[in-house]
Design brief:
Elements: E1 9-16, H1 22-29, E2 34-41, H2 51-62, H3 65-72, E3 79-82, H4 92-107, E4 111-112, H5 114-125, E5 130-135, H6 139-151, E6 155-161, H7 175-186, E7 193-196, H8 204-214, E8 218-220, H9 221-232, H10 244-248
Parallel strand pairs: 1-2, 1-3, 3-4, 5-6, 5-7, 7-8
Length: about 250
Amino acid sequence: MTDVQGWRKKFGVLGPSTNTIVQPDFEAMRVNGVTNHYSRIFTPNSQAISNETFLAGTTKISEGVLDAVRSVMTCSPDYLVMGMSAVTFYDGIAGADAFVKKVEDESGIKISVGSHATSAALNAYGNIKKISFVSPYYPIANAEVKRYFEECGFEVVRDICLQCPSWTAIAEVPEDHLRTLIKDELNGDDVDAIVQVGTNLSMVGLAAEAEAWLGKPVIAINTATYWHALRANGIEDKVYGLGRLLSEF
């Protein structure tokens, strides 16, 4: 017997309790026969994040991941999808792989995470060597993201960290501000692709729009992560209106 709505796959989605963007983003990308089941990692809404506290704060959130895993496993999901990205970049490729192993050992099933998903997305487009990226993070965390991408063989030409003052403030960054950053700071003839990290930063629609203006890949991490989860499960359905990654690859 199979779940009558999740008859193809049931995805368990893990995300901070302060995150309000992942859940609607993933629902917008959901295909027929696949269902998303959100498990919240308890996260007090820090109101005074700084470069000194950001890394410690996100690491503290990651300590609650296994509790969220144990909770969502009670609905017998087929696969897990990580709705928090920062910790999946820490300590480069080895750190990303260690995080995945920790979750998979606890759950007994596979997981897609933002770091692996964005590098896989860049490789799917092909011929990408130089990138820029934007995050809601602080410089200490952007350095970890840069390290990961460079270990994957990409040159990071420039990056922007928005230094959002609280976890919920990440979801409040206006689209117009991000659009200006893409046009005036992230883009350039020296960049083959633009990446956005930070799952509570709303950029799925804007990234798709920006690909049309710029004629180059613009990858939102929520799009990449959900795409990765679908393809890892042999689901090749194309989703239109949310960028080339979901509609072409």
